[in-house]
Write a structure and sequence with these properties.
19% of the residues lie in helices and 44% in strands. It contains 4 helices and 15 strands. The strands form 3 sheets. An 8-stranded antiparallel beta barrel has the order 3-4-6-7-10-11-14-15. Strands 2-1-13 form a 3-stranded antiparallel beta sheet.
Length: 285
């Protein structure tokens, strides 16, 4: 069950890319799931120029391949089997070397050079519960990625999942990227061995694949590759909740970039499998 939602997400992503390659990619995915411990997954690199952030940032260009962070989500579940979610995500750290080596940056640091990076997501889809296991499938959604040069933005959660978060002190915030959810899925399973009894931590995971486009300001911050990656893969953990009414959910969520049009479709299959690897590693941590 824990691999099912990842396989379905990967399948949907592959259909978006090239339908006639679906069989070959599905075989690659199955092989990858059978031997993920032996597979060295390569995350696409990107470069950031922190000197482009207004204020006191020091000129600094670095290479990374993943952004880690944490999210708070307001989710509303309808008895008919549909859901709406509104998510606020705060970036915590850039990571390199295929997601294994933290990069020293000015993100979140104290002093005049520090700045923030956050995203706002909204999405909707369907869900179903069989026994104690609930599966989720995204149908649509959108995202915006912002710089917070003064690290002073405030966030107020909406009353329901179909309403955006309210932000304050945004006078100097800069929209640097936008996107739309192409596919996504998740599983909540309180019976998992990783789900801590009484604490409700690590009780499931989810992943989304979204289009991604930089604004003009974003092109000054994300400087390579050029043109920049046009996909963003998000993977996160779910802490325990009951999919009834409106719930506040939190956990960790990471981002990896990729290309929708690539010479080898297998590359995208591997990126889909990366969601599986990230989810399992975060739950074991």
């Amino acid at each position: 069950m824990k691999h099912f939602f990842i396989f379905k997400l990967l399948e949907k992503t592959m259909k978006l890319l090239n339908t006639k390659n679906l069989a070959a990619l599905s075989l690659t995915a199955a092989m990858g799931m059978a031997s993920t411990s032996a597979m060295a997954l390569a995350f696409p690199d990107f470069q950031v120029d922190e000197g482009s952030v207004p204020g006191g940032t020091v000129a600094n260009v670095f290479t990374a391949d993943k952004i880690t962070g944490n999210y708070v989500e307001i989710a509303t579940f309808d008895p008919a089997g549909t859901f709406d979610v509104s998510i606020q995500w705060q970036a915590g750290q850039f990571v390199a070397n295929d997601g294994t080596l933290p990069v020293v940056t000015q993100l979140g640091s104290f002093g005049p050079g520090g700045y923030g990076l956050y995203a706002l997501f909204q999405g909707s889809g369907t869900f179903a519960t069989v026994g104690s296991v609930t599966t989720f499938n995204f149908a649509s959604g959108s995202l915006g990625l912002y710089l917070d040069p003064s690290q002073n933005t405030t966030f107020t959660a909406p009353a329901t999942g179909n309403v955006a978060w309210t932000t304050g002190n945004t006078g100097d915030d800069i929209l640097i990227g936008t996107g739309s959810i192409l596919s996504g899925a998740g599983t909540l399973n309180p019976t998992l061995s990783t789900c801590v009894p009484g604490a409700g931590i690590n009780c499931g995971s989810f992943g989304t694949t979204s289009s991604f486009e930089l604004t003009n300001a974003g092109k000054l911050y994300f400087i390579s590759p050029d043109p920049f990656h046009n996909l963003v893969f998000n993977s996160g953990q779910l802490n325990s909740f009951v999919p009834v009414g409106t719930q506040e959910i939190n956990g960790s969520m990471d981002a990896i970039f990729g290309q929708r049009t690539v010479p080898e479709p297998t590359t995208v299959a591997l990126m889909g499998l990366g969601l599986l690897g990230l989810g399992l590693r975060r739950r074991k941590a």
